[in-house]
Amino acid sequence: MKFGGTSVANVERIKNVAQHVKREVAAGYDVAVVVSAMSGKTNELVAWCNEASPLYDQREYDTIVASGEQVTSGLLALTLSSIGIKARSWQGWQVPIETSAAHGSARISAIPSKNLDDGFAAGEVAVISGFQGIEPLSGRITTLGRGGSDTSAVAIAGAIGAERCDIYTDVDGVYTTDPRIVPKAQRMDRIAFEEMLEMASLGAKVLQVRSVELAMVHKVKTYVRSSFDDPENPNPGTLICDEEDIMEQQVVTGIAYSKDEAQITLRDVADRPGVAAAIFVPLADANINVDMIVQNISADGASTDITFTVPQAEFQRAKDVIEKARKDVVCDNVETNMDVSKISVIGIGMRSHAGVAATCFQALAGRGINIRAITTSEIKISVLIDAAYTELAVRTLHTLYGLDKA
Ligand code: ASP
Ligand code: MG
């Protein structure tokens, strides 16, 4: 069971979490609980690091930001004990959750389960601090990157061979799209790992993307459910599972959008071997995450246009990198646009169905929405459009693919 920041926001909420744990213990389960820091806590800790020293040492950053989870794990263990459930807190280093040395965004390398298994044998609930680990060589505390306690939970579920991993949050599952835009969005009973990866990386901010990757690789049955449900009688939430476990496969299962896009277009780029590398290698070296890339075949064999997108926060840096790269890349001019958003239609059923892209383009045209760029994968179609049309496009496509709640 994993509880996010809003689920452990204060002692009152932690008492509510204890009731959810009590239900599973009463059902006969050994339970490992992973907790986040109280909501807002990690942001506060990060701000303190910046205030103390803007060019902080990542090792000390980890020491500081890992502390939020230490508080909630102790509080939950105390609360459980107070209602008669044997429980013990575990920090990352005590489990141990072994990680790489990449402080601030470490990767889990191993989780020996002996300590937790001993606790289960003694009838104790293990309450584990999410987000943190230890780098075995230095013995120093590490953290897994923002939102990392989802990844902690899935990794621990895998390590102890859990029957399932329930991720409790403030929404009761994964929706076909953002319910704030489409009130008729529906909670899905099941979604395939691959679809969830697309939804998660496209801004359906329910789970950290890495946790979904991990769940997929280790086949951990993961539920997204709400801690705000009645602890006696909660909804099952959304199961993220293998596509074979989904009986009735729909062609399209969800519509995702991202307003966090910025478009950069290089016009009349000299079309010869090496130009794409001359643009994208420096961007990669600068750690800039490029998403869509569109290049056409040049008509005259001499020049072509290249368009790509980056997250808005990286836009300025990307522009600087491109300006520098222009000494190796002959191009006419560079155009940019921050007022764009990306809409994506997702579904593994697309693999075996023709015409999904065509109906998508037609529906957008019917609304007078111009498509600036298109990319596809075998389970996704993404279009870049003017940001002003985001809501209209999402609603139109949600209806088009029959996702509206009756
Ligand atoms: N507390 C950490 C964060 O806010 C980790 C997590 O909650 O998943 O990023
Ligand atoms: Mg989270």
Automatic annotation (TrEMBL):
Q: What lineage is this protein's organism placed in?
A: Bacteria, Pseudomonadati, Pseudomonadota, Alphaproteobacteria, Hyphomicrobiales
Q: Which domain of life is it from?
A: Bacteria
PANTHER family according to UniProt? ASPARTATE KINASE (PTHR21499), ASPARTOKINASE (PTHR21499:SF3)
The UniProt record lists the EC number as 2.7.2.4
One MF term in GO for this entry? aspartate kinase activity
Pfam families linked to this entry: AA_kinase, ACT_9
Biological or metabolic pathway of the protein: Amino-acid biosynthesis; L-methionine biosynthesis via de novo pathway; L-homoserine from L-aspartate: step 1/3; Amino-acid biosynthesis; L-threonine biosynthesis; L-threonine from L-aspartate: step 1/5; Amino-acid biosynthesis; L-lysine biosynthesis via DAP pathway; (S)-tetrahydrodipicolinate from L-aspartate: step 1/4
The organism of origin for this protein = Labrys okinawensis
Signal peptide positions on this chain: none
- Its top-level enzyme class, in one word, is transferase
Q: Extract the NCBIfam families matched here.
A: asp_kinases, PRK06635.1-2, PRK06635.1-4
Name of the protein this chain belongs to: Aspartokinase
